Amino acid sequence: MFDDMDEITTDYDERIRQAREDRDLSQSDLANELNEKASLIRKLERGDTLPSDEVQSKLEKFLEISLSGGAGADDEEWSGGSSTGEYTLGDVVKRKD
């Protein structure tokens, strides 16, 4: 079901903020350009929420950035899981400390 979805980058919040600042836009300005709420932009830039596919598309198009792309430079092939082949939530979730 989810095989065709692109994974969002772990630094999506930094990419959005940096691209917005590079264009000298406030969070409110960006929200107006995208026809979204400024509170959503704040939450995205803090990493509190993930963008919906629609919002992600708008951000990528307007800011000319990519928020997807799978594995980053510090990611490597994952080999987690138990000996039974079953995974727990702890095997697949990365904590953002």
TrEMBL record:
SMART domains: HTH_XRE (SM00530). It comes from the Archaea. The keyword DNA-binding applies. The keyword DNA-binding applies. GO terms for molecular function: DNA binding. Keywords: DNA-binding. Residues 70-97 are annotated as: Disordered. Residues 16-70 form the HTH cro/C1-type domain. It holds the Pfam family HTH_3. This is HTH cro/C1-type domain-containing protein.
